[in-house]
């Protein structure tokens, strides 16, 4: 988020003073991890093996909501080949007052209950026990011997039903937070959030036109290709090694230590290559179970989720119901916006509804806004972070209203947005004043783009939508080492999801003045570098990039110092350019290359190494505007996206290809969310489509080439001007697709996904209305 | 899990053990028709005929118990050949893959609808394994190749432990997941009849995605026109709108004697919808399936008609 700077370090000023040349930054070199990945040598979460490893498997609830009357694992434990079984009784009880740190999520008490159910199961797939056996078949056999008695309870899957006063309660002790006085009756509404800016009553009084509509979206899964997997080895000393697929090795260490009451120092987490995360790997599911099983059995334990497990037991992002209204003058000036946003939390509190309220209208300068958010419990897996958590669904509602308003006032939809666009100095409804933003530029680029002016064919529709995401900084560590041969090793503590090895090497190369190929980047385990926050929040290129740039700047200082020692002069007599130290007194003719300095390092004080840890502030917010053309088959309701352009203020694109990749990937995920992705449940609350066949993420042939336009309004708080880029691209697509479909259909659609069946139904309804 | 390859006579043979040493499944790959029949006849316990495995293997992974014996028929030459007969018909081995079928230009030219139906299944990887016989014997109401096979009037050569028999494709599937084949029988090949001039077929399906999906509804049309462009033979088959593919005879009759004029097509569509008996499930409502099948059948008929005129 847009925090004020607190510790923008001295070293950064050195970097700013020694303004790095951008010889490498902005080019498109081959990614360092590419060869391993395309040749199948890269090792992912499930690829680690240790001799004597056991297979760990989770026993899951077949019921959406039930009280656990008895969990008897004795028969399973007696099966030859079964080495250990754990249940909730093996997890330390976390008292309520120790559930959170300083009142901030995550809630470890909930996390513990989500990892192994206590007393009640709250969704189909909720883990009840975990088994470690000599092989998969034995583990499967053991599953059939676990004896559980359930008292099946009424369940609630639907958001509206969950909010009814007589709805089945997930938690009898849930009294809605954020309401004063505290309600006397428990409900499924975990909390209420209110965001008030200006005076909406006065605002709407000035409006010539007011539009109010209801919208709904379905929960969607991050859809990472690699299921959760880990290998854990608890040694007799208690020292524990964990290899896993995660967005943050330090997060895994901290969460496991907290959940299992183990000292941090006993845990060492090795992050493997990650086959996608999108926010879904920012928590733990299997790792604590594998630790307990390994401890009990004395053997390494390997665990891997099936795709069905991933769908049933890991977090999607929330489904939502949103009622929203905006008021505007006849000239298109928006005077007020108001709404209620209800987000499904899943089985435990924690939907991103607050972020939905904060982001919905952030692209616009609206003086009066009032949004109320409700976090609602339902018998579904606990929601988890997903790329710009909470923003896409709120944006879908807001951007649909913008489109309806444009149609009613007969104003071009980009023009309407331009008339209301947030600028530098605009105060957002959530309190921050924008600085150095490039939103207006995305709108202008969209209007000038050939796509926006291309003619539409019959049954085609064009939609536009904008989106906002905060982007964050955070705690980051980076080390730069010079090897004796002059090669450079950059080490960070953040898994490479979006190509960060390449971008880190590129920034380091330019600060050091050396070639990209001279630098190798390593992602270290928790025992090999200082703490780093996880890869998420579009923070890595910005925050870790800042740490790398600062470490490289400090390295330049160190290299100058070493050269001065070799020349026996003061350090201020040595300049550094193009990877070479020059003795100023000589007019630059005396020089020492990085390789020469490295070769003599023993004579100047030993190995040359720098490590920087910081808490990066000053992340620049991201804005995007997307244009989408669809072709609608009116007889079948099937939508084909025929043309798509994503325009985004990216600050500075370190590696433009990966920035474009982020924009394209986000757009495609958003298209899937808009058109087909949904969880389908039967009447017993059991998931009907726990696989990619019937949970339809788009395949390559479903989308056109996503055209991209990079707008570069640099972030002055970063040595290279970086803003985060990974999340905002998923914000506009829902609105852009919906607006395109609605225009092609000639009737407004308010509910996602806009699947062929849903559109067919809407078209039939519209035809009946007309006749 | 251990896999020990053995040689038992001329058959490849393998036994899969669990780590605890129990036999999980036996697998054999006979190389002649007689050996397959012998293996089928001698089998005690559950046995499954195995070709591409694209339906079978995921089921084992999903936890369905594997059979005691898996008989791989891919090594029998008769199941792998595509042959044009002197009289113009085709023989297609039951274990021919989608990729093999698509690569056969003569077959594709004669049967564009059937071959595109097979080609719609899965991905490139699936296409290199999935077989025409497997698609039929999996007996899904939504199988892509089956409506087109039935519309083509294809017949199956069936071998069993006590001899061979022949059946039209529409007799094979009796209910979802069940065929009329006895446990000791398997399909060796399909016979496609010779084409009259000005004949063509077409297949269309409705899926939310462009590929890697399963038909919500589908339609195959195979027709022949005379020199005046009047339909004189027509077969229409609908998929995923009943427990087994629907041979839509009353709808085909509407097209007979016509040039697919607007009025005929309107009646054809209404008749198609009237013949649909779909269920509502996670993939689509009965109403949607009924509406869309008429659209697909109409479009498939137009495509086949235009192809026949070329």
Strands, helices and their partners?
The complex is a heterodimer of chains A (771) and B (310).
Chain A: H1 10-17, H2 34-38, E1 54-60, E2 66-72, H3 74-78, E3 82-87, H4 108-115, E4 120-121, E5 127-133, H5 136-145, E6 147-152, H6 159-163, E7 189-197, H7 200-205, E8 209-217, E9 229-234, E10 240-244, H8 249-260, E11 267-271, H9 287-297, E12 301-304, H10 307-313, E13 320-328, E14 334-346, H11 353-359, E15 369-377, H12 391-409, H13 413-420, H14 439-448, H15 450-453, E16 460-469, E17 474-482, E18 488-492, H16 500-512, E19 519-523, H17 540-567, E20 574-577, E21 580-583, E22 591-593, H18 594-599, E23 608-616, E24 622-633, E25 638-649, H19 656-675, E26 706-711, H20 732-745, H21 756-770
Parallel strand pairs in A: 1-12, 10-11, 14-15, 18-19, 25-26
Antiparallel strand pairs in A: 1-5, 2-4, 2-6, 3-5, 7-15, 8-13, 9-10, 9-12, 13-14, 16-24, 17-18, 17-23, 20-21, 21-22, 24-25
Helix pairs in contact in A: 1-17, 11-12, 12-20, 13-14, 16-17, 19-20
Chain B: E1 2-8, E2 11-17, E3 23-29, H1 33-42, E4 47-50, H2 56-61, E5 69-72, E6 82-84, E7 90-93, H3 98-102, H4 105-110, H5 112-119, H6 124-127, H7 132-137, H8 145-151, E8 155-160, E9 163-168, E10 173-175, E11 178-179, E12 185-192, E13 199-206, E14 217-225, E15 231-239, E16 246-247, H9 249-255, H10 262-275, H11 286-309
Helix pairs in contact in B: 5-8, 9-10, 10-11
Give a short synopsis of this structure.
The complex is a heterodimer of chains A (771) and B (310). Chain A contains 21 helices and 26 strands. Chain A has 771 residues and is α+β, with helices and mostly antiparallel strands.
């Amino acid at each position: 988020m847009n925090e004020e700077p607190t510790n923008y370090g001295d070293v950064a000023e050195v970097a700013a003073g020694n303004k790095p040349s951008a010889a490498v930054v902005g080019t498109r070199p081959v990614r360092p991890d590419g060869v391993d990945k395309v040749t199948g040598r890269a090792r992912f979460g499930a690829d680690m093996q240790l001799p004597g490893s056991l297979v760990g498997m989770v026993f899951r609830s077949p019921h959406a909501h039930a009280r656990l009357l008895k969990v008897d694992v004795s028969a399973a434990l007696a099966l030859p080949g079964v080495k250990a079984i754990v249940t909730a009784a093996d997890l330390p009880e976390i008292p309520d007052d120790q559930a959170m740190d300083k009142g901030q999520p995550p809630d470890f008490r909930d996390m513990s209950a989500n990892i192994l159910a206590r007393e009640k199961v709250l969704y189909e797939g909720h883990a009840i026990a975990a088994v470690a056996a000599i092989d998969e078949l034995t583990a499967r056999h053991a599953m059939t011997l676990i004896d559980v008695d359930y008292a099946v309870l009424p369940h609630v899957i639907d958001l509206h039903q969950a909010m009814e006063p007589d709805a089945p309660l997930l938690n009898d002790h849930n009294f809605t937070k954020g309401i004063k006085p505290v309600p006397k009756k428990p409900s499924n509404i975990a909390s209420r959030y209110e965001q008030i800016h200006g005076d909406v009553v006065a605002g709407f009084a000035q409006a010539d036109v007011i539009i109010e509509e209801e919208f709904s979206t379905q929960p969607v899964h991050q859809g990472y290709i690699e299921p959760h997997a880990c290998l854990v080895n608890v040694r007799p000393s208690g020292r524990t090694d964990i290899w896993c697929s995660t967005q943050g090795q330090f997060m895994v260490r901290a969460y496991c230590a907290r959940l299992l009451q183990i000292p941090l120092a006993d845990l060492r987490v090795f992050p493997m290559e990650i086959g996608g995360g999108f926010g879904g790997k920012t928590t733990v599911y299997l790792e604590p179970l594998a630790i307990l099983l390994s401890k009990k059995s004395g053997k390494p334990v390997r665990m891997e989720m099936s795709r069905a497990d991933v769908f049933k037991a890991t977090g999607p992002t929330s489904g939502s119901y949103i009622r929203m209204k905006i008021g505007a003058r006849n000239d298109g000036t928006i005077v007020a916006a108001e709404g209620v946003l209800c987000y499904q939390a899943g089985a435990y509190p924690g939907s991103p509804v607050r972020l939905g309220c904060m982001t919905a209208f952030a692209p616009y300068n609206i003086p009066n806004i009032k949004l109320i958010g409700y976090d609602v419990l339902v018998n579904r897996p606990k929601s988890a972070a997903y790329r710009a958590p909470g923003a896409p669904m709120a944006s879908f509602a807001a951007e649909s209203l913008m489109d309806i308003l444009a149609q009613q006032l007969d104003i071009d939809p980009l023009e309407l947005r331009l008339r209301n666009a947030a600028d530098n100095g605009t105060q957002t409804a959530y309190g921050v004043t924008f600085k150095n933003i490039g939103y207006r530029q995305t709108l202008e680029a969209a209007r000038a783009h050939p796509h926006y002016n291309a003619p539409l064919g019959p049954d085609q529709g064009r939609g536009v939508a904008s989106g906002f995401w905060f982007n964050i900084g955070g705690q980051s560590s980076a080390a730069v080492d010079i090897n004796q041969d002059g090669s450079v090793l950059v080490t960070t503590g953040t898994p490479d999801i979006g190509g960060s090895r390449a971008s880190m090497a590129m920034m380091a190369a330019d600060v050091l003045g050396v070639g990209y190929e001279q630098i190798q980047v390593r992602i270290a385990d928790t025992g090999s570098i200082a703490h780093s926050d996880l890869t998420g929040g579009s923070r890595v290129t910005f925050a870790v990039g800042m740490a790398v740039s600062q470490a490289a700047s400090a390295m330049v200082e160190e290299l100058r110092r070493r050269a001065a020692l070799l020349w026996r002069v003061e350090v201020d007599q040595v300049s550094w350019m193009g990877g070479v130290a020059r003795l100023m007194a000589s007019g630059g003719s005396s020089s020492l290359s990085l390789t020469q300095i490295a070769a003599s390092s023993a004579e100047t004080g030993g190995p040359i190494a720098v490590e920087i840890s910081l808490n990066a502030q000053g992340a620049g917010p991201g804005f995007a505007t997307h244009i989408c053309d669809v072709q609608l088959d009116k007889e079948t309701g099937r939508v084909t996206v025929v043309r798509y352009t994503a325009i985004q203020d990216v600050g500075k694109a370190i590696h433009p290809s990966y920035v474009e990749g982020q924009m394209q990937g986000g757009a495609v995920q958003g298209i899937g969310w808009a058109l087909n992705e949904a969880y389908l449940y039967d009447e017993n609350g059991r998931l009907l489509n726990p696989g990619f066949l019937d949970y339809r993420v788009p395949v390559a042939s479903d989308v056109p080439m996503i055209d991209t336009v990079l707008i570069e309004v640099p972030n002055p708080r970063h040595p290279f001007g970086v803003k985060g880029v990974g999340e905002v691209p998923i914000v506009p697509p829902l609105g852009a697709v919906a607006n395109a479909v609605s225009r092609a259909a000639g009737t407004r659609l308010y509910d996602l996904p806009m699947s062929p069946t849903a559109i067919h139904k809407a078209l039939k309804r519209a035809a009946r209305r007309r006749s | 899990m251990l896999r020990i390859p053995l040689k038992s006579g001329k058959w490849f043979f393998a036994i899969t053990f669990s780590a605890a040493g129990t036999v999980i499944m036996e697998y054999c790959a006979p190389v002649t028709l007689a050996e397959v029949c012998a293996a089928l006849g001698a089998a005690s316990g559950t046995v499954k005929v195995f070709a591409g495995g694209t339906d079978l293997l995921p089921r084992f992974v999903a936890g369905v118990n594997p059979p005691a014996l898996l008989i791989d028929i891919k090594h029998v030459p008769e199941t792998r050949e595509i042959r044009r007969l002197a009289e113009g018909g085709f023989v297609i081995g039951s274990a021919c893959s989608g990729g093999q079928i698509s690569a056969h230009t003569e077959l594709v030219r004669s049967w564009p609808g059937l071959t595109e139906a097979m080609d719609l299944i899965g991905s490139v990887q699936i296409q290199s394994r999935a077989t025409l016989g497997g698609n039929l014997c999996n007996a899904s109401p939504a199988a892509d190749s089956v409506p087109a096979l039935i519309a083509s009037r294809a017949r199956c050569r069936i071998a069993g432990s006590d001899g061979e028999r022949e059946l039209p494709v529409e007799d094979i599937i009796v209910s979802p997941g069940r065929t009329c084949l006895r446990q000791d029988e398997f399909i060796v090949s399909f016979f496609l009849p010779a084409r009259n001039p000005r004949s063509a077929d077409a297949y269309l399906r409705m899926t939310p995605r462009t590929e890697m999906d399963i038909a919500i509804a589908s339609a195959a049309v195979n027709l022949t026109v005379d020199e005046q462009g009047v339909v004189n033979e027509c077969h229409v088959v609908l998929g995923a709108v009943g427990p087994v593919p629907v041979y839509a005879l009353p709808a085909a009759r509407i097209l007979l004697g016509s040039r697919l004029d607007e009025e005929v097509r309107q009646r054809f569509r209404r008749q198609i919808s009237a013949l649909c008996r779909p269920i509502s499930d996670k993939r689509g409502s009965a109403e949607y399936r009924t509406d869309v099948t008429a659209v697909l059948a109409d479009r498939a008929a137009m495509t086949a008609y235009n192809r026949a005129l070329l």
